[in-house]
Amino acid sequence: MAEAIIELKSVERHYVQGPRKLTILNGADFSLRRGEMVALVAPSGTGKSTLLHTAGLLERPDAGDVILSGRACGRLSDEERTAIRRNDVGFVYQFHHLLPEFSALENIMMPQLIKGLTRKEAAERAAQLLDYMQIGKRAHHRPSELSGGEQQRVAIARAVANAPLVLLADEPTGNLDPVTASYVFEALEALVRQSGLAALIATHNHELASRMDRRVTLAEGKVVPL
Description:
Strand order of the largest sheet: 6-7-8-3-9-10
Strand content: 25-35%
Order of helices and strands: EEEHEEHEHHHEHEHEE
Number of helices: 7
Mean pLDDT: 91
Largest sheet: 6 strands, mixed
CATH superfamily of the domain at 4-74: P-loop containing nucleotide triphosphate hydrolases
CATH class of the domain at 4-74: Alpha Beta
């Protein structure tokens, strides 16, 4: 069995709302292996985004820990967590969040330039990813000139531009029609399988969820199998 790339161990996450303390994650345990795609299927308001943000080091657990590639991350400094996110974690959201003034190629180059690659290196990697996502001919188009499916493919390519260990996606096909959603998912799946990423994908699309390696949900703040 492949090694666990990311593990959540007894993670708790609470929010204070007026006089009340809301418990969103309550001793959540979860792990992802290299090359594995897991669907997170749960109703709105049950903590899907909180789970993704905690796994991706955007939020700190109030208790428990997040282990990424063997390294405990819950108590690291903000600077250390930022460096890990930049290098080892990719995010895809329901809305593509592409920078409107830049082309598809430039959007994918951006995280690589921030990491320290040269413009030549970043452009070559971005072009390869666009070709892999079958939209190489759209490299110099801005987001407003792309279809919804093309925009989301660019967003996926940007998320994996720095060759992360983990991909976290929050409803990546939620704004797309069923046919386009299927095409985008196929591109995402091929990328995950080819690169050996570990991917956790929140989705309401049960047909797409059934195509992943396993499905989990959230119940009373814990991650449980479906």
